[in-house]
## 1
Amino acid sequence: MALFEIFDPKAPPRPIGIDLGTTNSLVAYVKSERPTVIVDCDLEALVPSVVLYEPGGGVVVGRRAASLAAEYPRDAIVSVKRFMGRGADDPETRRLGPYEFVSAAPGESNTVRFKVAGERVVTPVEVSADILRALKAQAEDELRNVGGAVITVPAYFDDAQRQATKDAARLAGLEVLRLLNEPTAAALAYGLEKKQNGTFAVYDLGGGTFDVTLLVLDDGVFQVRSTGGDSQLGGDDMDRAIAHELLAALGFDPARQTPQLVRLVLDEARKAKHALTTQGEVQAVVPGHVPVTVRRERFEDLIRPLLERTGTACRRALKDASLKPADIDGVILVGGATRVPAVRKYVAELFQREPLADIDPDQVVALGAAVQAELLAGVGQRDDVLLLDVIPLSLGIEVGGGVVDKILPRNSTTPSRARATYTTQEDNQTGFEVHVLQGEREMVDQNRSLARFTLKGIPPMPAGMARLEITFEVDADGLLGVHAKELTTGIEQTVSVKPSYGLDDAAVEQMLLDAFDHGEEDLERRRLAENRVDAHRILVATRKALEADADLLDSGERVRIEEACAALEEAARGESASVLHARVEGLDDATKAFAGRRMNRAIAYAIEGRRVEAVEKSVEHAKGVEEAHVTPR
Amino acid sequence: MDPFATLGIPRTFTVDLPALEKTHRELSRALHPDRYVDAGATERRAALSKAVEVNEAWRIVRDPIRRADALLALAGVATGEEARSTASPEFLMEMLEQREALAEAKQARDLEAVRKMATSVEAQAAEVERALGEGFAAGKAQELAGKLAELRFYRRFLDEVSLIEDELAA
């Protein structure tokens, strides 16, 4: 716990970008127009994603935790990202590793639970929150007051993994401006550097995940055409391949490996991998055992199947984007594992060109996240930059016979929405079970189950009479909300998809309350300060809009808006957060019709390519149509 | 919703996709929620709902099956579940045989044979797309539900091929 309050209300809040990596994490911000990573007191930028839980409740994050991991293999959680959003019974959680797991009590969610420091139980979301807290503290040392954060996730993360990441950020007390896909963040960092239009491939092989993203860069718009990957493939797997080799060479019986030994061997394997980047062979020494020679050729044979898996994903992404390797203007390498020479060689052959790696592959994601944070916090000057991302995996629901009906296909641009209509199979059916799935396979059991809920209370009707409309909505974070409505009766139900593998909202709220040692009053003061910043921002935006599109207003409307502005200004000088909030809503209300007209004008400009007469005509038309629909209140 | 109107193009099956991609990008530039981070809640909501509509329209229009489906719906022809069964029995028989041949090639891990079948089905799909383009241009939407059903079968076949390719390559 900090001894003094670091939050300084007088310092302007600064947005940050966080790369929450499998092996290492980083935090960055934009310092006089250049994205810059924030270093710790030892001038180190990389924070090892390791959390050590000590007896007595102490939590150690980063390099010290990593150095103690071999001594306390069960209490030091390494590569926690691989467990995010996964079930306790997932094969991924049962791979080579030193941890002790606790099974869920009846009624508890099916999330992974680690037993640490004797009796404490922590979930991957809590472990990740501890890493994020450490990064936030590191940023606060430099910036005094941290605003919102953009947190990166692998493009191929599914909905449960994204939700878990967002929960971890909330638990760490961070306002999430956006969950940003890692390859897109990297492209942003490169694109702004190179100022070059074209089609690019981002090959991102991190510690535990692989992503490939193909995108078009066109005058500041980064449009993702397709993405693919494997959220269980990375540098860790290279370490494991070497570790199995070492264990076999030393003659260990796999059934009799202690957690200490497993951790030591994995660490030694990682060191060997690093050494083989520059050397032809290396002596791996597990303390207390004879050295084992690992040759680069042998290492390359061991990782060949891993590389082939990345190749499959790349070919699929090319096909989805209707592109051939020759269409690609540049390949960007991201992630520490792309330092392995065999990886670079493989990528060069796959895309038939030498990849770019001139921005440090460990830092590029955090740098891109910092740029996006600046844009989203509304303090950046670059209103020419925009990211258009996609969902990585198709979303659908279960229909008869255990088959998945895909409602929103993969590579749909976010934010997005799709609807489908279904009917009852049986007479007098009064409930519909809705089973939400994510993945590409035809059968339910081969896809990821995200949520189940039942739409109840439908009056008895013959089979095929009821009409159930399912709406999927995916926001700019790539997170899914599902809405079900029975059309003949209007019975509705909305769920945000989450409980299966994470913590439900109530659990997160409770942890947040437990974590806050400030009183209610502090929270209230902070809220007022934040509301004032918001109010100021909205006033500036409204005045800009009034100036730009004055011709879209009649005089009465203009007066009402100006009155609402004045009222808001007055409230911003006052001390009541609730009055301020009400006045913000009042201004929103007053500008409703105006906002709609401005939007139609924006659309007309975009479609008509700024041909003046056409624009004016369609604006007149839009105004007429809209006025016809607005009833006076 | 009329996705063609949203994107400001006429209701035709034949579309200029590269030009439309550009239009979609320009609309996104104008409407994406990230452009409205400074705005009040009303304007943000208005932008978000338009951005969602534009993305939905683009998703429909860029894909021949969804595009044809939308044109049929706008012409008042039954689509969706009902339309899926309107392919002729001869066609269904033929598809059944092709799926069996595909399953056999998968069993034998014969990637060459799988790719050969895919090429042939791709050609058939292109032919159906051409026929759809002509049919819609001639105002014969009423007669096209069967053609669309065929295209759906080809699509599913090609999706299966792509999964098999991944499996056999691994």
## 2
Amino acid sequence: MIAFYFIALLTLASALLVVLHRNPIYSALGLVNTLFLIAVSFVMLDAELIAMLQVIVYAGAIVILFLFVIMLLNVESEVRSARISKIGTAGLAFVLLFAVELAVFALVRDPSGAQELPAGFGSTELLAETLFSKGMLSFELTSLLLLVAVVGAVVMARRKVES
Amino acid sequence: MIEVVFGGAELRAVTPLLVVVVTAMISLLYEVFNEDHSDPARPVWLSLVGIVGGIVATVALWENGHSAFHGTFALDGVSAFTNVVCLLAAGLSLLMAPGYLTSIGVRAREFYPLVLLAASGMMVMGGARDLIVLFLGIEIMSIAAYVLAGIHRTDVKSGEAALKYFLLGAFATGFLLYGIAILYGATGSTGYDAIAAALPKASKLLVLGGVALLIVALGFKVSAVPFHFWAPDVYQGAPTSVTALMAVGIKAAAVVGFARLFIVALAPLHQDWAMVVWWLAVLTMTVGNVTAVAQNNVKRMLAYSSIAHAGYLLAAIVAGTPRGGGAVLFYLLAYTFMNVGAFAVVISLGRKGEANEQFDDYAGLASRQPLIAAAMVLFMLSLTGIPPLVGFVGKLYLIEAIVQAGYIWLAVIMVLNSAISAYYYLRLIFEMYMRDPAGPASAMEPAPLLIACLLLATVGTIFFGIFPDAPLDFARNSFLALR
């Protein structure tokens, strides 16, 4: 329990760093940290594979891409303007909305319905088994979805427009 | 031990889908190696083979009560009907494409495989018996549609349409996923049968929250008011052959996905969602029709009319009965013929550099192009719901199903709305027959494939108006078999 609160506080702190720091590079590094800490939370929830994917895909690939873009474009520290504070207000509204939603979920939760986790829950084997039995069609359709997205991206991004 | 199930039932379920997808891939690869671009109509033929193959495979393989992949997907009567309607819509919009795309200067050969891929997404939606499969179907279809809307890269309006559709579509996807997640949290499953079984014990607050989000997301896809704001701009900005596909095929797939989810998985909650969808239907048909009256652009008028028709279809879903579901399916078939026909006429009037989409451009059309004007009269009358055309029969069965389920007022509002819609449909006929042409007559002949498309739409509009029984019985029985 103490470990959870410790990790949760650290996660919150680094998430705040992402939105509050003026230098985008620090923000991106804060994001890496946040995602890594969320991966730790996944480990505590017995979801090792998700934790691993979280580190590899989000922290490893996506945010590093962000960093590359920031460094290549040489983005300066932001200048605080009225617009930013407007976005801040909207963000605050969303925070309140999510707080209310969390409270609702916590209230309607039925603790008697909680079940013991089945053996091997969260393991790679079990996930693979589900993916290739129950989720086989979804798995294959996802590849079709990616194909459509790739073709679409090529069509829209092609530099030479034939006419 | 991993138990991979891939047997006869699975193969049967995916064969029509595979035919369409594989054709799309072959046609993509063919364009890579093909150097000869002299004949713009050539890539159409390959795509049409895929469309026809998909229809044949569907007709040969469907079976009521069929389910595959652990009950997540089925090629039953409902999905067979959806497959045929969506492939028909895709085929007809492919027929009108080559001449039109050449005339507006679009030479992107990816157009044809993308239409096939969009159609495959629609087929997935029709057969989905699981929220995740439904989601994937919606996304496959939508991403292809975003690109198709913007395929006219040099036209600002086409780009605007694509961007608007994409941004709002991504937003709707967020709602959809959130709704699925909440419903999963409440019922412990994403499969329709398991959801229906778990609903009585699930937390009502959570379930209703999830259902509300799903209504928002699916309402966006069927362009229901108040989630319709994207529709007029996107329909008007997209190339007309794409607009036809969006107004007919995408709407059909989304409506069937809506109907199957609500009539099968959420049947125990009918009392709760019926009221919400009731209001959605009434708002959609009324706002659609009233706004259509004020339009001066035919394509935009057809966009608002398509919103109104979404309202009629939602009204039959409110009924929540197999009869309502059957009426919805039949109306989708009817709508495919008459609406694609109307868009084909819009295309046939376009010239290089000028779209001729205003009502004024139709003035005196009867003397310039008597046959095309006559066909347009037929489509407009059918959209209004005048017997003996297919639009009348379709509307009749929608209203019958609504009355039978006890929603008398909904039926009354729908009839009143049909009366409003008569104004703008008949106004176009008035323009064509009662007014003199504004400009000099142009003698350009429509492309042969476009004529084929017009002919098919005309024949379908008349034939199924006089002999509606076979498809109607089929549609009803397939929804009865779902229970």
